[in-house]
Every structure is written in C-alpha cells, then in structure tokens.
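Here is one chain, start to finish.
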Amino acid sequence: MELWITEQQNEDVNFTCKVNSTIYTGKSEFQEIAVLDTAYFGKMLVLDDVIQTTTFDQYIYHEMIVQVPMFTHPDPKSILVIGGGDGGSIREVTKHKNLEKVQWVDIDKTVVEICKTYLPEWNPDLEKNKIVDLKIEDGIKHMRESKGIYDVIIVDCSDPIGPGEQLFTHAFYQDVYSALKEDGLFVQQTESPFYHRELIKGILRDVRDIYPIARLYTANIPTYPSGLHCFTIGSKKYDPMTPLASRTPDFETLCYSPEIHKACFVLPKYVKELVL
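Its structure:
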C-alpha cells in the first residue's frame, strides 16, 4: 500500500507527495512532529501536518532568509535566530567570519533534538560550533527582555497559527526593533504572495510603521505553498536593495549570490501591488 502525505495549503488547495517510509513521528508540548523519507523530496520535516522543509529545497529557504540580511549589514557580529529548529538557518549564519555572538532561541526543545538526531546532514557542524548559544524559551519573551544588542535578527518561524501566531504582530515587531542595535535589521519569512496576500499587506503595514526601511523579497521554494515565498526585512539604516559591493560570500552557496540578492527585490507586478 502506497503512503502519501497531504498538506492543506488553503481551503481549496492540497499538496501531496509520495512517502517511502516514516523515520519518526511523535508529539511535543506544542505540536505533532514527523520526519519522513519522501520519494521525490528526500527527508521532510512536518509539524502539525504542515511541511517545514525538505532535503530537496531546504538550502534555498535557509540561504535566502539568512544571507540576504547578513550581506545587507556591513559588519554583522551579534546575531539572533528565533525558531529554525531544523538548524539550517544557524548553519548559514555560522558560515560568516568575525561573529561574536550567535543566539538561537526556539520554544520547542523536542523539534531541535529530533532534527539533530534524524536530520544531522542539514547542519553537520552544529554540535562542534561553540559560538552558538541555544536557549529553549519563548522568542517573544526573549525579544521583550533584549534591548539594543543584535545586529541582525532572523525570525525563522512557522506559519502564523499555533505557537507562531504572536510572531506576526505589531507588538512583536516593536520588540524586535528595541532588541536591535541602532543600525540593526531583521528578516522574517512571510508566506505566499498567492495564498496570503492580506497577511503580507498587514505585515508590511506594521513593519513600515516602525522601521525607516521596509522591503519585501521573494524566492522560489518548490515545497512551500504556491512555490513562491515572501520574506520581509525591517531595517533601521541599511537598505537591502543596495548591498555593499565589498560584502560578497567567501563560502559556498547553492542559491544565494550578489546577483540573486539584487534580483530577489525585483517584484512581479502582482507582488509589487502588495507593497504599494
């Protein structure tokens, strides 16, 4: 009997793919967790029946959510990652040199441990990297208690339901602003421009209300709803649309490049309508 996983992406659309085997299933304090081996996408992390990332395309998401803001800032030393239990965003952050502090905050210890156990290839050097300080706590609480200490904050959160819902609010973006240094910036994954248009508009309104610079950019990620995904940056000083020519990768990437950095802010008209 063939096994399939189906994610309901909206009221009218499902995404389905074939499963070779179930590697892990269980439940944490916050959510149901599954690690699957799929026929086409390889290993897949699923939380509450929602696909989080896969071996097939995880590098696109992680490089684009991390490297765009990291190469916007001229000298990022103090970094915070909220969420990202699979470890991919931390992997991308720690490719950079001259880091002084990498704080990783995730509310769900079980997700982090399951990913370390069953998806170690997504961050093979995690246990060796002593610069990373992992705290299992609420990212919202951490933001409220942090003042002026981070250069870059990466909000690698799940969808705006359940544990992640309060990470998409004006109050949270204000707390992020307070946690940033005077020239800091943050990025957050902000869903599909096809399926979540009103959500994206609301996020941009809130970010614009707080930050001098607010930008939307996109990346094609095959296993995410509609295949096109949005990210939102709020910056106190540096415009991600004009990155410094002197700041380019000295490490291997599979998706990100200086050319892609510039191109991802060139929005098709139907997406540009969301930022007007």
